[in-house]
Amino acid sequence: MSFGQRRMIELCRALMFSPPLLCLDEPFNFLGQDSRTEIIRYIKDEASKHCNIVIATHYPEEIAELQPEILTFSGSLPVTDLTVRTENLNAD
């Protein structure tokens, strides 16, 4: 199996259980564009209705389609500054 195929299975298994909180770290790595679009659509339309999802990424453009609430940290520990970004990521 390719890394992308394994990642898709990992995501499907995690989403299948509909936990109250699901934390995903760089979930779209290794996915091709079609798989990425498919899983993003599922997260947006179905999974987010049943659980809260936290996605950590260095590439906010990857999740722009989700229209998420974005929280940014100051970059140092302990976290003393948490900012909620409300601008539309699709505006560019």
Order of helices and strands: HEHEEE
Q: So how many helices?
A: 2
Widest sheet: strand order?
A: 1-2
CATH class label: Alpha Beta
What brief labels describe this structure?
single chain; two-stranded antiparallel sheet; 4 strands; alpha+beta; Rossmann fold; two-stranded parallel ribbon; 92 residues
SSE arrangement:
Elements: H1 3-16, E1 21-25, H2 33-50, E2 52-56, E3 70-73, E4 82-85
Parallel strand pairs: 1-2
Antiparallel strand pairs: 3-4
Question: Describe it for me?
Answer:
With 92 residues, this protein is an alpha+beta fold. The chain has one domain: P-loop containing nucleotide triphosphate hydrolases (Rossmann fold, 3-Layer(aba) Sandwich). Helices cover 35% and strands 20% of the residues. The chain is built from two helices and four strands; from the N terminus they run H-E-H-E-E-E. The protein has helices at residues 3-16, 33-50, and strands at residues 21-25, 52-56, 70-73, 82-85. The strands form two sheets. Strands 1-2 form a two-stranded parallel ribbon. Helix 1 (3-16) runs parallel beside helix 2 (33-50). The termini are far apart. The relative contact order is 0.15.
Short description:
With 92 residues, this protein is of the alpha+beta class. Helices cover 35% and strands 20% of the residues. The chain has a single domain (3-91), classed as Rossmann fold (3-Layer(aba) Sandwich).
